Description:
This protein is mainly beta. Helices cover 6% and strands 47% of the residues. The chain has 4 domains: 32-157, Jelly Rolls (Sandwich); 166-280, Jelly Rolls; 288-365, Immunoglobulins (Immunoglobulin-like, Sandwich); 370-479, Immunoglobulin-like (Sandwich). The chain starts with a helix and ends with a strand.
Amino acid sequence: MAASIRRRLLLRFSVAATIALTLMSVVPSTAFAQPANDNFADAAPIASLPFGTSVDLSDATTEPDEPLLCGATQTVWYAFTPTSDAVVRADATGSSFSDTNLSIYRADGPGLGSLTWLGCGSFGSPVVFAAQAGTTYYVQGGSFFGEGGTLGVHLEVVPPPPNDDFANALPYTGPFSDTQDITGATNQAGEPPSSCLGGLTNTVWYSFTPTTSGSISADTEGGFSADVAVYTGSSLETLTELGCSLYGGVFTFHAVAGTTYHLQAGGHTVYGLLQLNVFETPPPTAAFAFGPNPPSIFDTVEFVDLSSDPFNVGIRAWAWDFGDGATAEGCCPTHRYAADGDYTVELTVTTHDGRTASLSQVVQVRTHDVAIVKLAVPKNARVGETIEVNARVRSTRYPETVQVDLFKSVPGGFEPVDSLTQLVPVQRRNRSTSFAFEYTVTQADKSIGKVSFKAEATIIDQRDVLPGDNEMISPPVRVN
């Protein structure tokens, strides 16, 4: 039985093998051949743009010296030589795979060794490059992971924007914002390279004729290296640059009504959308600080300008009004007030292009001062006796909350005894407020033979502008 089964299996295998060999002899050998443009030397020519084709990468290979800067493992080649300068977009699609790879090279001579890589696009990303008439370019298409399948290759010329040339500059008479696709933008013959845009490769032009004079700012959006330059003049040959900004920064200039300004916007090999914004320059920001705060009538107040111009023109002039009839100029004046009160100080700043801004602050002048006018103690005392130490404090300007600290004498200095805090009202005619302390005489005081007291007065939450009279030492108390 087993031998019979083996014979039947062998017969079936023999028949299957015969059928397979027969099919292989029938199928044309070209079904498994490499693509005709598999090698660089056999690059398929591209006669004109737009161009589109497809190729099966299943049996595509890579040559030993083939550049693989973007990592493709199966490649085919195309070559074209444009008859005029153009910006070209190339992209690839895969029918059964997503890891498409497309690299662009410029041929500087014959052979693979003469190629200069211009860029690549992977996983469906396009490649955009500037092609020069008479120069041969090579397109290397492939896949990353050798999945095989059909690769579609597409090339087309990207048309320039309508305001690509100076003569076709888009006109405006007031603030505006405009967006253009600068992928196909070019540099025309004689176009000036501004002082900021030395490496500019694709530009668009605008003309701006304001109806009123004033400060104007311009900036760009659309990439790190998007730039703008401003000129006066009526032709490329007569343009005079006013200035420019780099990398999306702002350029500000003073525009005169009726004068036409030309704006050149673009990027350094930047493709895609670029937005130009032209707007009236906002005013600067006025700010200042002063000290001491609060000041007194004995203080020379220092004022410090903290103003800024976000549009980088800079502050040219400072005008101060101190609120008491006095004025000053310059960034950092000083002033002394004759009497306590609330004074509205105003600072007005002016930029180099004439924009202004003002800021007001109220300066509260307050002269706080208290004094210890008497420190009364008995002449004699005994050990164990409790005596009164009376500090008299006077305030002549404002009611003040005052803390008085009492110290007693010890060899080498003083040590704390007690502290009292209370309100000291304003009193006239040499009247004062009493801070009455009690102290019990000790044996240590007797060993010295006397004891003195020191009182120190401090205004709570205020600055005493004349602290020299805030301390007093009593006559010694003789200890019997």
